[in-house]
Design goal:
The structure holds two protein chains of two kinds.
Chain A lengths: L5 E14 L3 E8 L3 E7 L18 E7 L5 E10 L3 H4 L1 H17 L7 H16 L3 H15 L17 H6 L2 H6 L6 E4 L4 E3 L1 H6 L4 E3 L1 H12 L2 H7 L5 H19 L5 H11 L1
Parallel strand pairs in A: 3-5
Antiparallel strand pairs in A: 1-2, 1-4, 2-3, 4-5, 6-7, 6-8
Helix pairs in contact in A: 2-3, 2-4, 2-11, 3-4, 4-10, 8-10
Chain B lengths: L9 H11 L6 H13 L2 H16 L2 E2 L6 E2 L13 E8 L2 H10 L4 E5 L17 H12 L7 E4 L5 H13 L6 E4 L15 H9 L5
Parallel strand pairs in B: 3-4, 3-5, 5-6
Antiparallel strand pairs in B: 1-2
Helix pairs in contact in B: 1-2
The chains are: A alpha+beta, B alpha/beta.
């Protein structure tokens, strides 16, 4: 069956590199075609009609023509430019982080509308919410769930036993307030929290406080609005521990670290 | 590394491999360039060889602006007619060439040699930013302080983020920090302008 010579798709510009004399090689995330690489001819010229419509992380509508190696951008129109990412260096840094995560979790040509929607929403969250770091944590948890790596935070990831912290506290809400409850072990290799028995035999684990576990559970189960409504109650220590635990789990799953985190840490240190 | 026919002389294979290492040149183009040089008069190859050698032996970075130069400080930095209190910060040496072509800038430059790109692992420490801050501090301690820093990074997301980062770094330096205006290009078409360009063109409109 012959394929249409041109086709239309919505896309988010995930990566961009100079190519040839004045062209740009774009890596797109699309809802129906997954990740794909295309060429935008002449896009580096100042008078290019396409240049402003194919900026990094912009959500765009594209008309693509089939090419020999790469398909070619024939028309481009911005749906959402995400202007705050350009004006706020920290939000821009987080957008890179989201883009890097999606890039790492996807293969070229694999259709994944859920991941596309997550990226589209994630970029909006990073633009809009007062605490982009928390939106990034929320994004990470959603990504892990969609990709099939949802961390087990409510039972022991190895034995399925009730966690000690829950035996004593009864509920996660109590855990936020209480400091007397025992710490829990988080194991990136096991993909979740461990009971004391399993933790004794586990390696490369992190100790997390009951407050951290409560934050991570909320990141997994609450809506972003619910999360933002109680965000001020989270301690800095719990947020940092949650970030570290999720980051280590992501590195374990991806078998590599994430490049954009270094820059975000540097910006946050300065603020 | 290409794997050409083993019957080719080693010197030919070596040149094909060398060309193939260049960006945008594949094995086919590398072979075509090599065969062109084989057939062309010797002067073409020897001139190219001399130019390549000089490129690596004669050039260095200017100790002031970090542009590529054969003499240090470079011609622009050592020109007393230029306004040394006005520094234009650009991403790459080729941006200096572009601005000089406009003949409308009389200040001096600072070349960052890159742009912040977190996804590619390029952070502020990988740019020549520390040198810019040191240069401003040094000038401000003299009787010829820096009056203005023009951030002329590209109007891309990375360029904007780099400009924001530098602006924050210079916040306490007592220097005026400006950004190149953004708007419609000469010969452009409103119909095809994106929303950010159009909104910035409107924000930056001027009396006629």
């Amino acid at each position: 069956m012959s394929r249409a010579r041109v086709y239309a798709t919505e896309a988010i510009i995930l990566r961009r590199a100079d190519y040839g004399e004045a062209d740009r090689l774009l890596t797109l995330m699309t809802p129906q075609l997954g990740k794909l690489r295309v060429i935008a001819k002449g896009a580096r010229k100042i008078t290019s009609r396409k240049a402003g419509h194919i900026e990094l992380f912009a959500r765009v509508r594209l008309l693509l023509a089939r090419g020999r190696t790469f398909d070619i951008v024939s028309q481009a129109e911005v749906i959402e430019a995400h202007r705050p990412l350009r004006e706020d260096v920290l939000r821009g840094g987080y957008a890179h982080y989201l883009g890097e995560l999606i890039d790492q979790f996807t293969q070229e040509g694999n259709e994944d509308p859920a991941l596309y929607d997550l990226l589209a929403n994630g970029l909006m969250w990073i633009c809009d919410v007062p605490r982009p770091a928390l939106a990034a944590r929320y994004f990470e948890m959603r990504l892990l769930t969609i990709a099939g790596y949802r961390p087990q935070l409510f039972r022991c990831a190895r034995t399925n036993a009730v966690l000690e912290v829950d035996q004593l506290a009864g509920s996660a809400t109590d855990a936020v307030a209480s400091r007397s409850l025992p710490e829990t072990t988080f194991s990136p290799a096991d993909g979740g929290a461990l009971c004391a028995g399993a933790a004794a035999a586990a390696r490369d684990v992190l100790k997390i406080t009951p407050a951290t576990l409560a934050v991570m559970r909320m990141l997994q189960t609450a809506t972003l609005d619910q999360l933002m409504a109680v965000a001020d109650k989270f301690s800095d220590q719990a947020l940092h521990q949650a970030e570290r635990a999720i980051r280590q789990y992501l590195s374990y799953v991806l078998e590599r670290g994430l490049r954009s985190t270094r820059f975000i840490a540097e910006i946050e240190r300065e603020q | 590394m290409t794997t050409p026919n083993r019957t080719l002389p080693p010197s030919v294979v070596r040149l094909i491999d060398a060309f193939a290492q260049l960006p945008g040149i594949g094995p086919k183009s590398a072979s075509r360039l090599t065969y062109y040089l084989l057939r062309a008069p010797s002067e073409v190859s020897l001139t190219l060889a001399d130019a390549l050698r000089d490129l690596k032996t004669l050039t260095r970075l200017c100790s002031v602006c970090l542009n590529i130069t054969e003499r240090d400080p470079c011609e622009i930095c050592s020109d007393p007619a230029r306004d040394h209190s006005l520094i234009c910060v650009v991403e790459e040496p080729l941006d200096v060439v572009a601005i000089e072509r406009s003949r409308s800038f009389t200040g001096v430059y600072h070349v960052l040699h890159g742009v912040i790109s977190p996804m590619n692992g390029v952070g502020p420490d990988d740019l020549r930013l520390r040198e810019l801050l040191a240069r401003i501090d040094k000038a401000n301690a003299t009787r010829q302080p820096v009056r203005e820093v023009i951030l002329a990074t590209n109007p891309t997301l990375e360029g904007e983020n780099t400009a924001s980062f530098i602006q924050r770094k210079l916040a306490g330096a007592g220097v005026r920090v400006t950004r190149l205006a953004r708007g419609l290009p000469v010969g452009g078409d409103l119909e095809y302008a994106d929303e950010i360009t159009l909104s910035r063109a409107l924000e930056g409109r001027q009396d006629m």
